[in-house]
Design brief:
2 domains; alpha/beta; 14 helices; 5-stranded parallel β-sheet; Rossmann fold; two-stranded antiparallel sheet; Helicase, Ruva Protein, domain 3
Length: 328
C-alpha cells in the first residue's frame, strides 16, 4: 500500500462532531456566522489556560536565542502555514536575522500546497528536514491532532540532537506529547465543522505563536514600553514611524528627535537612550552594548533616571487635566 492508499482514522477531539453546530447547514448566513463566532469565543480562554506552558517555552527560548541558537517550527497543512507566517513576520517587524527563526513544511519547494497536505504522513521527510537542528536550538512542532507523522519525525531527530522540543496541539494525550520537553495544550474542543482544524485549533496556534514570539522579542529588548525600538528607518514610512516612536517616548519635538536620530546613525535604540538619559550618542551606544541592547538596562547602567520617561500609562485624572489645560 502506498501513501495514496493509506487510510488513517484519527482518534482526537479535534475530529469529533460538535453538538452545538449540528444544524449549521440549515441556518441563515448570519446564523452560520454567529455559530462560528460562538465557537471562536472558546479559543482565547483555552489559550489562556495554556499560558504557563507558553511562558516556559519563552523563558527557554531566551537563553537559547541569546546563545546563538535558532528557533524551528515544524508543521503540515494549516499548522505549517501558521508557522511559516510567524517566521516570515518576525524579521521585518523586529529586525532579526531571518535565519534565526525558521519554518519547515513538507512542500516540494515549487509552491505546491498539495504536496504539503499529501506529505504530512511522511515521518522520514520530517526527519530529513530536521537534520540541520543542533543542541543549541528550540524546536516547536505544530499539529492540532498531536499525531502528524511529519512533525513526529522532526521532533524525534531534534530530541536526539539535544534540542529543546515543544509540541503545540489541541489534544491532551496525542502520541507526540510524551516525546517532547514541553506540551502546550489548547483545549479548543470539536470544530464547528468536524475535523476542520483551520478553525479553532488553527486560531489557537496563531494566538500561541503570536504570544510566544512577541513575548520573546520583548524579553530580548526589542521594545521599550509598548513601542518597537529595533526599527531601521530604511524608507520614508519607517523614518516617520521611528520619529513618532522617539517623540512618544521622550515627549520631545520632532526636530530634536530627528537631530539625535541622525547623530545616532539612524539607530533607534541609541537615539532613544540618548534622549531619555540626556547623554550623547556615544555614551548611549556604549551603554546599549553593555546591556545587550536593552534600552531600560542601558539607562540604569548610565546611572541616569529617565526624566523624560513617558512609558507609564497616564491616569484618567491626569489625562483629563491635560485635556482641560489644552482647551483652556
Amino acid at each position: 500500500m502506498n501513501n495514496g492508499d493509506l487510510v488513517v482514522r484519527v482518534d482526537s477531539v479535534t475530529e469529533a462532531r460538535n453538538p452545538h453546530t449540528i444544524g449549521i447547514d440549515t441556518a441563515s448566513t448570519v446564523e452560520i456566522l454567529a455559530l462560528l463566532n460562538d465557537e471562536d469565543a472558546r479559543v482565547a480562554p483555552a489559550v489562556r489556560r495554556a499560558l504557563p506552558q507558553v511562558a516556559a517555552v519563552v523563558d527557554a527560548a531566551i537563553d537559547r536565542y541569546t546563545d546563538g541558537g535558532r528557533i524551528h517550527y515544524f508543521g503540515a497543512g494549516t499548522s505549517g502555514r501558521i508557522g511559516a507566517l510567524d517566521a516570515a513576520e518576525l524579521p521585518p517587524t523586529f529586525s532579526i536575522d531571518p535565519h534565526r527563526v525558521v519554518a519547515h513544511r513538507p512542500t516540494t519547494g515549487n509552491g505546491g500546497e498539495e504536496a504539503s497536505e499529501a506529505s504530512e504522513d511522511d515521518a522520514d521527510l520530517g526527519r530529513a528536514h530536521a537534520a540541520e537542528v543542533t543542541a543549541d536550538d528550540l524546536v516547536i512542532g505544530l499539529t492540532a491532532s498531536g499525531r502528524t507523522p511529519y512533525v513526529q519525525g522532526a521532533l524525534e531527530v531534534a530530541k536526539a540532537a539535544g534540542a529543546l522540543t515543544v509540541l503545540v496541539s489541541s489534544r491532551p494525550d496525542g502520541p507526540i506529547a510524551e516525546l517532547v520537553d514541553i506540551h502546550v495544550f489548547a483545549d479548543t474542543g470539536p470544530e464547528a465543522i468536524a475535523g476542520s482544524t483551520r478553525l479553532k485549533a488553527g486560531t489557537a496556534q496563531k494566538l500561541i505563536l503570536n504570544g510566544f514570539s512577541t513575548a520573546l522579542m520583548i524579553r530580548l529588548g526589542k521594545t521599550y514600553s509598548n513601542l518597537m525600538v529595533d526599527v531601521h528607518p530604511s524608507n520614508g514610512k519607517l523614518r516617520g514611524r521611528v520619529l513618532a516612536i522617539l517623540e512618544e517616548a521622550s515627549g520631545l519635538p520632532e526636530q530634536r528627535c530627528a537631530r539625535v536620530l541622525e547623530q545616532a546613525g539612524g539607530d533607534t535604540r541609541t537615539a532613544l537612550v540618548a534622549l531619555l538619559a540626556e547623554v550623547d550618542v556615544d555614551d548611549a551606544r556604549a551603554a546599549l552594548a553593555s546591556s545587550g541592547g536593552h534600552v531600560r538596562r542601558a539607562i540604569v547602567d548610565l546611572g541616569e533616571g529617565p526624566s523624560r520617561d513617558r512609558s507609564q500609562p497616564r491616569t484618567p485624572d491626569s489625562s483629563t487635566r491635560e485635556e482641560e489645560h489644552e482647551t483652556a
